[in-house]
Each structure stands twice: as structure tokens, then as C-alpha cells.
Amino acid sequence: MVALTVEELTPEHIRFTLSNTTVGYANALRRILISEVPTIAIDMVEIERNNTVLPDEVLAHRLGLIPIYSKRELKYKEECSCSGFCSECSVVFEIDVVHTDDTLRTVSTRDIVCDEEDVIIKSGPVITKLARDQGLKARCIGRKGVGKTHAKWSPVSAISFEYDKDNVRRETNYWFEESIEEEWPGVRQGEANLMQKIDKIHMCVEVVEGGAGPLAVVLEGLRILKEKVATLSSAAETMD
Predict the structure, then answer these.
(1) With contact defined as beta carbons under 8 Å apart, do 147 and 34 qualify?
(2) What is the CATH number of the domain that holds 211?
(3) Whole-angstrom Cα distance, residue 114 to residue 93?
(4) What is the domain range of residue 205?
(5) Which of 202, 216, 188, 208 is nearest to 160 (CA)?
(6) What is the pLDDT of residues 167-223, one digit of tens each?
């Protein structure tokens, strides 16, 4: 049975070791974490007023990349029976800023208003800047989605995994003229064993700041992977 041991956990990343597993399992988990763990992101922007320096499509793109975390479970748009958006599949955000001073005015996520207490939007990212008599008014619709549809829904920013730290399987060949130790300082290689079994994978997952926590993302990825394996196993049993 696969075992998971957490070695380091911070608000932004998690380091853990998978035991009794294979490289293929770790890579499947990596792909799921990137593309199939659902999150919330702004998917539709209705701009009523925009006389900033940025065109509508650039503003919509920037708004879509803002990290959003929702404690409330939403339906996918495809699963909802509403014609546009509703409280079961969407979260509504409002932004209305007008600048009347001669100084520059920074518009950030702090200017976005949401009436739902269960929705947390990352505070800080800059959306645009306003000069005198410029303004922005828009309604943004946040929806549930996954990274394979658009990268804005991906909950992770980077994932890495390693195995065979001592390179005993010699899958990495160092080019050298005389001595590996002298030409590759710091490199450590164990005694060669090309048949060494790989059963421990060290992984590091860095999540998008402002979204779900790293442990929650990894556990959701494992749940999705388990569900996929169960579906495949069930399908295989019904084959003639």
C-alpha cells in the first residue's frame, strides 16, 4: 500500500515522500495536481466602464488570473441547469473605482467586492492604475473549473519529484574527461546497481498563493487518482 510521509509543510508548499510506489504513480499524481484538481477563477467579465490604459480583453485576462478560494462547494457550469449563472455554480464580484485626483491610483484586488463570506480573494495583486478622471466598473463571475481547461484554474505553480538520489541505477550519465569527483564537485553517486528497485519518491508541491492549502490540494489529488483507478478497474472487470 502506498504511504505518504509529510516532511515539510508551509502555507505555500509541501514536501513529502511516497513509499511503496512507482515513478508512474508519482507522475500520474503530478499531472492530476496540475490539471484536474478543481478551483474557482473569474471566468466571465462584464465591463460597464473602462477608460483605463488597458483594453477590455487585457483587464479580463488579468482578472481571470487572480487566486480565489471558496469554502462553499460549487457545481460545474455544465452541471447546472441555470441559463447564465446562479448561486449554485457561480460567485459574483463587483469592482467600481473612479479616480479624481492628480496622483496615480492603483486598482488592486482590495477594490473587488464580494458579498459572500465564504469566498476569499487574494489581497494585493495589481489590476491596473488610474490617472485623473479614469475609472473602471465591472461585474465578474467566478466559476469552478480545472487546469486542463485553462491554466487559471490550476491550484499549483510548480511540482517536482526525485528518486534515486545517489544515482545507483546510473540513469544520469555525467560527461567527464578524467574524474567525476573533480569535474562535478558536490555530485554524490552510490555503488552502481542497475537493478535497484525504485519504491520511494520525494515530491515537492508549490501551490498558488491565495488558493487552497498545499496539503488540501495534495489530498484532493490523491482522492481523484484513487477514483480514476477504481473506475478503470471496474471497467476492466466488465470487459468480455
Answers:
(1) yes
(2) 3.30.1360.10
(3) 5
(4) 3-37+154-176+195-237
(5) 202
(6) 676 777 778 788 877 878 877 777 776 677 778 899 999 999 888 899 999 999 999
